[in-house]
Amino acid sequence: MSRNVKNRRKTNETNIILELNIDGEGSYNIDTGINFLNHMLESFAKHSLMDLKIKANGDIEVDDHHTVEDIGIILGESFLEAIGDKRGIRRMADRTVPMDDALATVAIDISGRSYCNLDLNFKNEKIGDLTSDNIKHFLESFTNGAKINLYGKSIGENDHHKAEALFKAFAKSMHDACIIEHDKIPSTKGVL
Q1: Per-residue CA distances from 65 to 81, 141, 159, 174 (Å)
Q2: Cα–Cα distances in angstroms (integers) from residue 109 to residues 11, 31, 89, 134, in the given order
Q3: d(CA 72, CA 144)
Q4: Rounded to whole angstroms, how far apart are CA atoms 39 and 46?
Q5: Is the dihedral of CA 163, 118, 7, 180 positive or negative?
Q6: Other CB atoms closer than 10 Å to residue 24's CB: what's the count?
């Protein structure tokens, strides 16, 4: 079973080409036009062991909102396509990741239903060139596209560390939830 896809999302605000391989080695080639988002997505790929290529052109001269949102949407939709009928996956996983002063926890359920609950309290409006609020918006957009449940919390003093710990916990929990353990659909309903 091949769990990889190549997709494109083109709107009046963005043009994004994305390749995702769930069963990769953590390789990446990411250019979103937003350096801190590149850093977070590179960290996600590395720690999830998913191969990820993204080339995005967006209206970042306006702000970073549309680009962040559309990358979250296409990454979520690509994940949903790549995971297929979810036969045999572990489905649920959680991870807690420390990073210096910060601690982040993410719990995932690849349930076929989207729900996102985040407790993030960034102190600054920006982390590098990324608007802090758009980290939450990225994860909400991903969750909706992927049709998963995601709970995330990050605490600490340094916004960079809080965000990076969050993306690493997200990566690790996604990796663990995608592991194939058997050949059944992991649901009493018989579908996910």
Answers
A1: 24, 11, 19, 24
A2: 30, 29, 11, 22
A3: 9
A4: 11
A5: positive
A6: 17
Six-digit token string for 45: 């790929």
CA distances from 81 to 20, 84, 108, 150, 190 (A): 10, 6, 17, 18, 18
Alpha helices in the chain (DSSP H): 35-48, 65-83, 133-146, 159-178
What digits encode the pLDDT tens for the residues 56-91? 999 999 999 999 999 999 999 999 999 999 999 999
Which is nearest to 19 in space by CA: 34, 3, 33, 39? 3
Closest CA to 108 of 126, 90, 132, 123: 90
Q: How would you label 139-150 residue by residue, b for 16+ Cβ within 10 Å and e otherwise?
A: bbbbbbbbbbbb
Note the pTM of the prediction, 2 decimals: 0.98
